[in-house]
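Case study 2.
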Amino acid sequence: MSASIAERLSELGIALPAPSAPTATYIPTKRIGSTLLVSGQVPRVDGKMSFIGKVGDTISLEEAQQAARVCALNIVAQLHAAVDGDLDRIAGCSRVRGFVNAAPDFGAHAAVINGASDLIVEIFGERGRHTRTAIGVGSLPHGVAVEVDADFEIDG
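Prediction:
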């Protein structure tokens, strides 16, 4: 029998943050049938915006990967709230979209978003494998380096 997601989080030493409230006119999650959409999450740590700057300029690739990981952690926190704390209801991750606030000559967008993808797979195992898009953009809200959203399938 496989470990629960709560046990997996404990094994990984991951404590989920409190989910952030929206900062504009949107909701953090929306269920459509068995699909749960999670709005874009930024690298907010302890309620504060982190990783402010342009990747390839003031933010290194490694820092950007860490920012993407924080975004994914915030996605899981939103999921946790949406499924009333039962992450074992997550049947799979369908898609991850990552946006990188990149300097014009930066080209490693996919490597940045690996930070998010890797965490989702670490937590959910095979259920965490997903399709993905990594996009470079000229700016992001609050000047953050990365924003990530995701779609999941849920049971029940």
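The beta strands are 29-32, 35-41, 44-45, 48-49, 90-101, 131-137, 146-154.
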